[in-house]
Amino acid sequence: MMAEPPVLSVRNLRVEFPTRRGTLLAVDDISFDIAAGEVLGIVGESGAGKSLTGSAIIGLLEPPGRVAGGEIRLGGRRIDNLSREAMRPIRGKRIGMVFQDPLTSLNPLYRVGDQIIETIRTHLPLGEREARARAIELLTEVGIQGAERRIDAYPHEFSGGMRQRVVLALALCAEPELIIADEPTTALDVSIQAQIIQLLKRLCRERGTAVMLITHDMGVIAETANRVAVMYAGRIVEIGPVREVIQSAHHPYTRGLMGSIPSLEGTSDRLTQIPGSMPRLTAIPKGCAFNPRCPLAFDRCRVERPDLMAVDHSLAACWLVAREGAEAPR
Amino acid sequence: MLAFTIRRLLEAAVVMLTVALLAFVLFRFVGDPINQMVGQDTSIAEREELRQRLGLNDPVLVQFGRFIWNAARYDFGISYQVKRPVTSLIAERFPATFELALTAALFAVLLGIPMGVYTGIHRDSWLSKLFLSVSLVGISLPTFLIGILLIYVFAVQLGVLPSFGRGEVVRIGGWTTGLLTASGLKALILPAITLGLFQMTLVTRLVRSQMLEVLRTDYIKFARARGLSDRAVNFGHALKNTLIPVITIIGLQLGAIIAFAIITETVFQWPGMGLMFIQAVQNADIPVMSAYLLLVAFLFVLINLIVDLLYVWIDPRVRIYGREA
Fold first, then answer.
1. Is A134 contained in some domain?
2. Which helix (H) or strand (E) holds A200?
3. Residue A312 contacts B, CB cutoff 8 Å
4. Please, what are the averages of pLDDT over each run of 10 residues along chain B (325 residues)?
5. From the list A97, A106, A123, which residue is nearest B225 (CB)?
6. Which domain holds residue B62?
7. Residues A296, A256 within the same domain
8. Do B315 and A106 touch (CB under 8 A)?
9. Domain residues for A308?
10. Which residues in chain A touch residue B123, judged by CB atoms under 8 angstroms apart?
11. From residue A126, how far is each of A120, A140, A152, B250 by CA, in Å?
C-alpha cells in the first residue's frame, strides 16, 4: 500500500489486568495504523479501552495492567518490548501526549516556562537560553499572546483553554511523529473546544504529525479525524473513513452512537440512545459483546464472536455484514 | 507579601498575649510561693513583708500589667527557688535544649524524608516494608519507654554511650555547646534519637502517603509522558508537591519536640529547660514556670510564622491568595 511504514502500527494488541478474580482483558486484539499527517479518531464509551490503548502505546500502563500480546511499531520499529530506560527517550521526543484535564496536567508549583524548558532540554541538545527562546516560539505557535511575558506565569494564572494550549506546546516540544490526545477537549467549554481542535488540526497539517485522538465525542471526531475506530468492550467493532462511518455506519453500535449526537437539521426532536450499558470486563457476553443491547441481533450473534470484515472502505465486526454480503453482494 | 507578613505578625501578637494571660492566671493557682520560699519558723509579719516586696498584694490587673511589661522586655523576675533572675537561668539552660531539639529535628527530617520518598516510590520492596514496620514501633512506643530501652541497650548492656548528662561542654560567649567535644556528641545521640524517633516516623509516614497521592496525579503522569527521567519526576515534580503538608507538620512538630523535651530531659537528666521546668513545678517557682510557658509559646508562634512564609515561597498559588486577602 505505502512505501513508507505508517507512523504507528498496532497489531493484535492485548492489554490485561491480573486481578484476584482472574485476568481481565481490557484491550482485546486490536489492530490499526496511523499514517503521517493522519488523524485517527478512537471513540467509544467509558471503559471501552480507548485510554488504555493510548497508555499502552506510550508505555505508561499503570501496574498491574500490562501488554499481554501483539506488537506496537513506531516508524516500523517495535517499541512494545523496549525496556523502561529505552522507552523513556521515545516519550515526549517521538510520541507526545495530551491528557483530558489541562487543569491537572501541569505541575502547579512550576512556571509553565520551566516545565517547557525542562522538557525541551530533556530531549534536545539545547542550552538554557536557546531552550527558552524555543519555548516562547512554541507558546506563540499554540496561540498564547505575549508569550515572552506569559512564559514566566504559573499554571493557575492561565484559563482552562490556555492551559490546554500550554499542554499542547509541551507535547510538541520535540516535534514528535505521533501525538496521542486523550480526550483533549472534554474538560473545556464548547467554544474553547473548537479552538483547540482547530489548533490540533493545523499543527498536524503543518508538521505532518500523526494523531491518535481519543474521545467519546463523535462531534469532535467528525470535525477532526480522517479515519475513525469505534471501540466496544475492549475491541474495535468498526474502523473506516470518518465520512463513511458517520454517514453509513455498518455496525449497529456505531449507528447507535451516531444517533446520540444532536444535530441542528435533524427532523426528530428526540435523541436516540442505546439501551443498557457496556458489559463489565468480568461479564463479557458470549458471541458478539454487543448482542444483548443490539436491536438487530440474531442467533449467530449470541454464539459466535464476529471478527472485523471488510465492507465498502471500512472494516466492521458484525454478522450483519456477513449476512448482507452473502445475500446481496455489492 | 508585606501585608501578609504584617497580618501574620499581628495574629502572633494576639496569640502571645492570650498565652501570657493564661500563664499568669494559671500559675496564681498552683500554690502559695511564700510557703515554698521561707522556713517553717518564719513569722507571719515576715511573710507579709515578703509578700509585699514581691508585689503579690497588688491588684490582679496591676500584677498582670507588670508581668506583661516585664515579659515584653525579657524580664521574668527572680526565681523564687534559686533567687536568681529567671532570664539568666533560661540563658544557661536554653543551649542544651536547643541543641537537643535541633539534633532531634534534623534526625527526624534527614532520615524521615528520604525514607518516606523511598517507601512511596518502591511501595512493595522489602526495604519499604522494613521501614514501615520500624516506623510503627516508633509511633506506638511512648518517648520515655524508648529512652529507657535505649539506655538499657546502649548504656547498660553495651556500655558504649552515656546514659545521662551532656558530657563535656565548651563555652562560647554566653552559649554552652556539647557539639564540639567527643563526649558531648556521644551524650547527644541517645536523647536525640529518643526525642526524634516519633517525629521521624511521623515524617516518614506523612511523606510516604503524600508521595503515593502525588504520584497518582495527572501532572506526574504527564511528566512521565513528556519523557522526563525518573529522577526529575520523583524528586523534581513529586517531592516538591509533597512538601507543603510536610512542612506544616514538621513546623508544628518542631514545637512539639521542644515541648516533649521535658520527658526526654527527665529520662536522660539533660540539663535543659524541660528539666528546669519540672524542678520549677515541684517548687511552685512561678516566675520560672510562666517564663517557660511563654518561651515555648513564643517558639511555637515563631515556627508557625516561618512555616507560613515558607508556604508562600514554595507554593505560588498561596502568593496570589495572600496578595488578594
1. yes
2. helix A190-207
3. no
4. 80 88 76 71 81 79 84 82 85 88 91 90 87 84 87 87 81 78 85 89 90 88 87 86 83 81 88 88 83 86 83 72 42
5. A97
6. 2-72
7. yes
8. no
9. 249-261+284-330
10. none
11. 8, 19, 19, 39
> Could you tell me how many CB contacts below 8 A there are between chain A and chain B?
75
Phi and psi for A32 in degrees, rounded to 5? -165, 165
Q: Which of B36, B40, B39 is closest to B54 using CA atoms?
A: B36
* A36, A2 Cβ separation under 8 angstroms: no
Radius of gyration of chain B measured on its C-alpha atoms = 24
Please answer yes or no on whether A108 and B219 come within 8 Å at the CB atom. yes
Min distance A55 CA to chain B CA atoms (Å): 9
For cell 506523612, the residue is B206
Residue A230 β-bridge partners: A43, A238
Question: Which of residues B26, B45, B72 is at a domain's end?
Answer: B72
3-state secondary structure string, chain B? CHHHHHHHHHHHHHHHHHHHHHHHHHCCCCCCHHHHHCCCCCCHHHHHHHHHHCCCCCCHHHHHHHHHHHHHCCCCCECCCCCCEHHHHHHHHHHHHHHHHHHHHHHHHHHHHHHHHHHHHCCCCHHHHHHHHHHHHHHHCCHHHHHHHHHHHHHHHCCCCCCCCCCCCEEECCEEECCCCHHHHHHHHHHHHHHHHHHHHHHHHHHHHHHHHHHCCHHHHHHHHCCCCHHHHHHHHHHHHHHHHHHHHHHHHHHHHHHHHHHHHHHHCCCCHHHHHHHHHHCCCHHHHHHHHHHHHHHHHHHHHHHHHHHHHHCHHHHHHHHHC
B48 and B190 together in one domain: no
Asked whether residue A240 is domain-assigned, the answer is no
ipTM: 0.81
